[in-house]
Protein 1
Amino acid sequence: MKPKSGPAYRIQEFAKLTGVTVRALRHYDRLGLLKPTARSNAGYRLYRDRDIARLQQIIALKAAVTLVMADRASWPGPMAPELRAYFDVAMKSA
């Protein structure tokens, strides 16, 4: 197993770094969209720099879902599983 590189950020630090709320990060974790890289001995979620790219994908997909929700008939085919999970949750809360 390769050693993990770069600093580990606790959820509050990662939220501040990315401009996403702690609540949103916990929500993405519950949905399985952005699982923390690790957990500390105390149970804190730990994120690394590479998780930023995944978070950017989620933010982009969230924007796409928002557009699709405005006009669901415009979706051009089947959704990726990650988008489907987010879309399903978004539709339940709409």
Protein 2
Amino acid sequence: MLEINSKSGLYPLYAAYSIYRARLDEEWCKHNAIAPDRAKALWEQTLKENIFVVCKTPMAVAITKRTLCGFRTASAREISSISFPASPIPSKRSSAISATPKGSGD
């Protein structure tokens, strides 16, 4: 799953949890038990293999990593920030002036 322009990581968290639950169910069907270490390994495997996130700012990267990994050092290496070139935003006044037809104030 690829999310572009993540800010909080909630959608990748939802996607990761859905994949993780499917893997847990599969594991439960095979062994009828799941060790805590195995459950943690499945979560880290899900993040590593299935979740790819692109953020605009370093702060969004930090928030997304914290959302997905908590305070652990799980492999969230596929979360990165990229910089977009700033596009000039026209001021409201200049847009309003250019949008006003000539002679309307007469």
Protein 3
Amino acid sequence: MIVKMDDSVLLVYVLLVHVLLVHVLCVCCTLVAQHMHTTHAHITHNTYTHNTQVYADEAVPVPRPEHWGGYLVRPERVEFWQGRPSRLHDRLVYERGDDGGWKIVRLSP
């Protein structure tokens, strides 16, 4: 199941899990539109250096486009498969129960 994350959930996720990484990536993304052509690498580097100074304080939010968001993938069923030369493969399925826990089932090869 894939559930669209609302901004409040996305913000909490970003803050708790990826604060530094997202901050650095957002600073990089403020450089130029990624589809734009550039012939001068030093301009991109200078812009990056400037933006890392402007947004050095992680408390200062880096602006992000409104269309940026995220999706939370909530698997209902996951199968792990390990092949064997005998073709008697080992297959385990994890299925989410009604209580939110996981039930493990072994499948035939």
